[in-house]
Amino acid sequence: MSHTDDLSTKPWLVDSSVPVLPSEEEEDLRAAMRDLLGTGGIDEVRRVAATALGHSPAMWSALTGSMSVTTMAVPEPVGLGYGLAQLCTVIEECGRALRPEPVVMSAAIGVRGLLFGRGEELPALLDGALDGSRIVTTTSLTPESDDLTAESDGGRWLVTGRAPAVASAAAADIVLVTAETGTGRMLFAVPTDDHVERMSLDSLDPTRSITALRFDDASAIALTDPDETPRAVATLRDRAVIALAAENVGIAGALVDMTLDHTKTRKQFGRQIASYQAIKHRLADMYVDLERARSAARYAAALHDIDPARAGLAAAVAGAVCGDVVVRASTEAIQLHGGIGFTWEHAAHNYYRRALTNETLFGDTAAHRRRIAQILALLPSAA
């Protein structure tokens, strides 16, 4: 039996042909991102996150312009065709800097969702999403997150109902939702006009806004037919889980670095606290966790680029591993920083809040483990 046959019958096997080591081009991209994002610290992030838009228009313009984040993972000839793996390098660095710009929601998920559509009204929306002038966000794309119905009215679709919690929706121009129709559930793109009411919610993470949306006969563009919707939603949710896993890797990396710096400068009994064996072991565990999470996220992104249909298990593994690692890194960072780490003013708390909020968007670690069990036929499918 060939290795390819093994992979089809044993999905838990790692495909050794999938590239996981960063290329020189990716390292250059990472360096460019650090140069771009390194101009502001946590105080700047908090400041722009507290504005009405919830992010910096200047930074979003730089990300969509000079860094081409909205076209990077879009197949040619529409986009640059680099793939999700390259975009996840950008997302990891955005997580490291805790940026509030909607790179995950718009560039990684929203733009890809619009590509499923074929309607005459779609090109104008897609062009705006690709050049960054229109921000796209998405619900969690489940019946629980999308209490919505859609009716066809003279050749156009009208969506009614509510989406109780949508990330990065405060400044979104387009929202991707699923809605129940007379023939089944479909995927829609809904421009946020006067028929979409927004209500800002108090969020654990002030650097990523959460908004409740109410739709009242809002005009919508159908992106999929009912029979196409499950595959499209699975693809978008996998991309979301992988993108958030990459962001969590960036967060964990920042926490490891700041904790190492602190323990190397903080002294007790005349010695750096990093020189004590107990602290060394905890720092080593944090670093091993970080590399394990990075490997899981990179493998999932690269496999998704090769064949999205095969990436479900890898995405779930990345979601579970990276979710565990980032929470553990956050708690360790807070504790190893001592008294200052327990103050709300310290940056570690903002990273911790983002990590916990990420779990609410497309599934927590328990949900990802349930999916792993379902894929491996250890549990019955949710369907």
UniProtKB/TrEMBL annotation:
The keyword Flavoprotein applies. GO terms for molecular function: acyl-CoA dehydrogenase activity; flavin adenine dinucleotide binding. It comes from the Bacteria. InterPro entries: Acyl-CoA_Oxase/DH_mid-dom_sf (IPR046373), AcylCo_DH-like_C (IPR036250), AcylCo_DH/oxidase_C (IPR009075), AcylCoA_DH/ox_N_sf (IPR037069), AcylCoA_DH/oxidase_NM_dom_sf (IPR009100). Its cofactor is FAD. The keyword Oxidoreductase applies. Pfam families: Acyl-CoA_dh_1 (PF00441). Residues 242-375 form the Acyl-CoA dehydrogenase/oxidase C-terminal domain. Keywords: FAD, Flavoprotein, Oxidoreductase. Belongs to the acyl-CoA dehydrogenase family. PANTHER family: ACYL-COA DEHYDROGENASE (PTHR43884), ACYL-COA DEHYDROGENASE FADE28 (PTHR43884:SF20). This is Acyl-CoA dehydrogenase.
